[in-house]
Amino acid sequence: MEQPLKKQKVWITAVHKERFEILFENGQTGFAKLKAGIYYGQGNEEFPTVGDWVEIEENVYGDSLILHTFPRHSFFSRRDPYPGAREQAIAANFDYVFLLQSMNQNFNVKRLERYGTLAWQSGAIPVVILTKSDLVPDAVPYLQQARAAVPGAEVHIISVKTGEGLPAVRDYFRGGKTAVLLGSSGVGKSSLVNALMGNAAMKVSGIREEDGRGHHTTTHRQLLALPEGGYIMDTPGMRTLIMWEITTGLEDEFPEIRALATQCRFRDCRHEDEPGCAVQRAIQNGELDPQRLRVYRQLQQEGKNVPQKREQKGKRKEDMLRKKGKKQRKTGK
């Protein structure tokens, strides 16, 4: 008589396209793939990503099957930069989002505001980390701009070469907390991971001096256990970060606009040329940077496409099932 297949709750520690690395509660590791009938069918299961807890049907002779994605306490995704405008899950179940920017030509306030919106939207706490302090004579201007770009977030200046600021970063992992790294290529994500791990856990690439841009060192999303406790999630550098869904994140990232909007004469004020607009009055009085309003509007416009995006989520399942069928026909499996 055949033994029933064992079901277990496991943690996804890395994503390699359609294959997932998993960690069992007893410390053992393995690999798993999605059960097609559940994830590519008509069900409502969320496609898992690194950091997700999932239920599997264990297979001791090969890849286990993922049957269910458990509810998340934090999560962020972006719009897939490739044609099709689908949702791309990035990470789940983290406590902090480390927003990394290097203090060179890579530093970009507008990008930091976008990252901040995504971080607040995720349900976790954003923390801005300004890297490569050993390369700048004065980090104060960068510090001031970062604080203004992500109001309410802690900002740290670090250097993995000199060790400046690293003790403060390590404090975030006390009590087994988890942080995910978010930043474009070349900002020092892999270098920070190596510094926290105490070894060369991640390959490090250089940057082009003329524009401060880096190469993609991390090629997949993965979760690493730190020697002193806690976990860190590394993600590939993202030069393109288009929002998928924006609700609370926009209000948390732009609290000054939210507060001013309550003072507008009209509840549906667009903050353009309406009479009694408190937002426009603040700009005229020099109390609000007009660039902040421009970025706010741009992100708000991206968020208006949410209903269409939810419809595309269903189409994504159909496309993935079609792709899987083609692959099976080619391999004969």
List keywords for this structure.
333 residues; flat; alpha/beta; 5-stranded mixed beta barrel; 10 helices
Description:
This protein is an alpha/beta fold and 333 residues long. The protein has helices at 36-39, 109-122, 140-149, 166-170, 189-197, 248-253, 255-261, 278-284, 290-303, 306-331, and strands at 7-16, 19-23, 29-34, 53-57, 64-69, 75-79, 87-92, 96-102, 125-131, 154-157, 178-182, 221-225, 231-234. The strands form two sheets. Strands 1-2-3-5-4 form a five-stranded mixed beta barrel. Strands 6-7 form a two-stranded antiparallel ribbon. Strand 6 and strand 7 (87-92) form a beta hairpin. It starts with 6 loop residues before the first strand and ends with a helix.
Radius of gyration: 22 Å
Dominant shape = flat
Instruction: Catalogue the unreliable spans.
Output: 203-218
Report how far apart the termini are: 27 Å
Order of SSEs, N→C? EEEHEEEEEHEHEHEHEEHHHHH
Q: Give me the side-by-side strand order of the main sheet.
A: 1-2-3-5-4
- What percent of residues are in strands? 15-25%
Helical content stands at 25-40%
Count of helical regions: 10
Major sheet summary line: 5 strands, mixed, barrel
